[in-house]
Amino acid sequence: MSITTRFAPSPTGYLHVGGARTALFSWLYARKHGGKFILRIEDTDLERSTQESVNAILEGMSWLGLDYDAGPFYQTHHFDRYKEIIQQLLVQGDAYYCYCSKEELEQLRTEQMANKEKPRYNGKCRDSGGPQLDREPVIRFKNPVDGVVTIPDLVKGDITVANKELDDLIIARADGTPTYNLTVVVDDMDMKVTHVIRGDDHINNTPRQMNILKALGAELPEYAHLPMILGPDGARLSKRHGAVSVMQFRDDGYLPEALLNFLVRLGWSHGDQEIFSIDEMVEYFELEDVNVSASAFNMEKLLWLNHQYIMNSDPAHVARHLSWHIGQLGIDPADGPALIEVVKAQRERSKTLVEMAAASVYFYKEFDSYDEKAVKKNFTTGSEHVLARLHDEFAGVTEWNGEKLHQIVVNLAETMGLNLGKVAQPLRVAVCGSAVSPAIDVTLSLLGQEKTLARIEKAINYIRTLN
Ligand code: GLU
Question: Is 219's pLDDT higher than 90?
Answer without folding.
Answer: yes
